[in-house]
Design goal:
This protein has 242 residues and is an alpha+beta fold. It is 24% helix and 32% strand. The longest helix has 19 residues, at 2-20. Strands 1-2-3-4-5-6-7-8 form an eight-stranded antiparallel beta barrel.
């Protein structure tokens, strides 16, 4: 059921990029497939919706250069069996190019965080493989991990010649809107906060980043009935500025 529902969203997303793609873009890829990556991001706006207050805008003079969909886990540690609050221990995620959806069909993009959250890992990779096969373009463009408890890393060096990497620190956060998906089947402890990130040493190609339209990922309020380490599935949109 989860796969069928999500596959229908992915099919709609693929159709949207085909319909909206410029004719010359499709002509160039007529033999190679369908354009679903590397679209012009100049018309894209950050999806400030449902949060109060909203995250700060990008700094003056910056340009949006990447939009990706992240799907993975938020990681936590616990004093097992206690009533202590779980402690964040970073995150792991695969990053998918979402530039064409952001540019051509943003409302559909905003549905994908919740849809991707429903997938088991093996099904997620199958869906990505299908999209990559029909388009002949690299859909998986990076990986997200932490180099320490509070230092997020977004590594885009999976393409030949790509040197982009974002190492950041949190400079602002807001609670996810009430309508955000709490978890799979909308059952869980909520969606993680929306964030603004600022680049620190180790970054190449970026100045600022955002995590927005989150689904899942939040921990339970206490460590009761939890092991010493556990993960919570999440999905989100990431926006990067240069």
């Amino acid at each position: 059921m989860h796969f069928c529902k999500t596959l229908s969203v992915l099919s709609a997303a693929l159709a949207a990029t085909v319909v909206a793609a410029p004719a010359n873009g499709l002509h160039k890829r007529a033999l190679g497939g369908i354009q679903i990556t590397d679209c012009d991001l100049s018309p894209v706006q950050l999806p400030h919706r449902g949060t109060d207050p909203k995250l700060p805008d990008p700094s003056a003079g910056l340009k949006l250069t990447r939009v990706v969909l992240g799907r993975g886990t938020q990681n936590y540690t616990c004093n097992a069996g206690s009533n202590d609050k779980p402690t964040s221990n970073g995150a792991l995620a695969v990053l998918y190019d979402a530039s064409c959806l952001a540019a051509k069909s943003p409302s559909l993009l905003h549905e994908l965080s919740s849809a991707f959250l429903q997938l088991e890992d093996s099904t997620e990779y199958l869906a990505a493989a299908v999209l990559q096969t029909v388009s002949n373009e690299k859909v998986v463009v990076g990986h997200h991990f932490f180099s320490g408890p509070t230092t997020p890393v977004f590594d885009f060096r999976v393409k030949d010649g790509d040197k982009d990497i974002f190492v950041g620190k949190k400079v602002a956060n807001v609670t996810a809107p009430d309508f955000s998906s709490k978890g799979r089947d909308n059952v869980g402890d909520g969606a993680v906060d929306w964030l603004k990130l600022e680049a620190v040493d180790g970054t190449s190609g970026f100045k600022e980043g955002y995590r927005m339209v989150t689904a899942g990922g939040a921990p339970p309020p206490t460590c009761k009935d939890k092991p010493s380490a556990f993960t919570v599935p999440y999905a989100t949109e990431y926006y990067f500025y240069s």
